Task: inverse folding
């Protein structure tokens, strides 16, 4: 009888211990999932194969080489290259169509070093139809979707990087190792976009938001930050961004302002003069975005606005923008 009770007690104790034995597995599982995700991100995130595109004969005739031009460079800006249809990202197929159109129309990409020489008035060595292609944010999907297509067309691009997420190991963004590999390929220039300043902050008691760099911060506990605190906050982020690039051995001579805003849309009148002055001490060129998204080609001394490509932007629409602002009057897109 005693033996049977001991046997039953042992089984009951074992059953009671089962939930306890599950606890270590529950603790380990998230770590395993995270480790697998990191492995997949590191080793299974290569560039996608270049998609094939075919244009009709009518389109091919429309995209014939445009007249050569001098003293001007159109600048494009992309964000993600993916299938998310989020309003800003361009699909891989549409990006392939746009690069094919640019190639057929005779445009050839230039490096950021060539662009800087152009801005200094030196046009020696530029192709007959130069264009600068840029990408904002340092996103992995932009690299994966664009790299092989750029290679196919012997084109290059500039990647503007937000270094805060890179330092944090955010898998949505490219790592420093990947950025160095891109630079070493000869297809990509790496330039600064922000450190922690690529975000919106609260700017008033109604919880409205504005760009980190172009706005004074508002908190309910303290109200508006002083202008001196604003300048310290913004300056610290810019200096930290420059230091991140220095440590990686990348030049940081140009800057793409987050949201294209250097204070021109700020509610603080002093923001734009301060920000433009600060950025001028740190960078030779600062790219911005204008209202209406219909800038002309950039020139040596004029505006540095970029034409922003959106989800709905087609190769035809890009082509029409290029022709509309072509420096040669009456350019038709056909060269005999």
Result:
């Amino acid at each position: 009888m005693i033996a049977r009770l001991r046997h039953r007690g042992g089984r009951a104790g074992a059953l009671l211990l089962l939930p306890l034995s599950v606890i270590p597995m529950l603790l380990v599982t998230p770590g395993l999932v995270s480790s697998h995700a990191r492995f997949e991100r590191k080793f299974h995130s290569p560039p996608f194969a270049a998609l094939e595109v075919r244009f009709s004969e009518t389109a091919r005739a429309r995209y014939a080489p445009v007249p050569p031009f001098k003293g001007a460079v159109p600048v494009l800006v992309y964000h993600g290259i993916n299938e998310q249809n989020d309003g800003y990202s361009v699909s891989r197929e549409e990006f392939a169509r746009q690069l094919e159109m640019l190639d057929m129309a005779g445009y050839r990409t230039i490096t950021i070093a060539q662009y800087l020489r152009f801005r200094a008035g030196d046009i020696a060595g530029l192709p007959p139809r130069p264009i600068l292609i840029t990408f904002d944010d340092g996103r992995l999907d932009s690299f994966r979707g664009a790299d092989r297509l750029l290679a196919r067309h012997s084109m290059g691009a500039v990647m503007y990087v937000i270094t805060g997420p890179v330092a944090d190991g955010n898998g949505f963004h490219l790592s420093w190792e990947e950025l160095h590999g891109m630079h070493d390929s000869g297809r990509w220039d790496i330039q600064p976009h922000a450190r922690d300043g690529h975000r919106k902050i609260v700017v008033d008691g109604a919880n409205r938001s504005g760009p980190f760099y172009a706005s004074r911060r508002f908190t309910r506990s303290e109200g508006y930050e002083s202008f001196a605190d604003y300048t310290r906050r913004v300056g610290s982020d810019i200096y930290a961004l420059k230091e991140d690039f220095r440590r990686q051995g990348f030049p940081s001579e140009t800057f793409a302002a987050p949201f294209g805003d250097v204070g021109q849309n700020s509610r603080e009148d002093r923001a734009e003069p301060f920000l433009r002055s600060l950025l001028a001490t740190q960078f030779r060129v600062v790219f911005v975005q204008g209202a209406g998204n219909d800038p002309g080609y950039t020139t040596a001394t004029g505006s540095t606005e970029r034409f922003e490509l959106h989800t709905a932007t087609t190769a035809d629409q890009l082509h029409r923008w290029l022709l509309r602002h072509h420096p040669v009057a009456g350019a038709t897109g056909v060269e005999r």
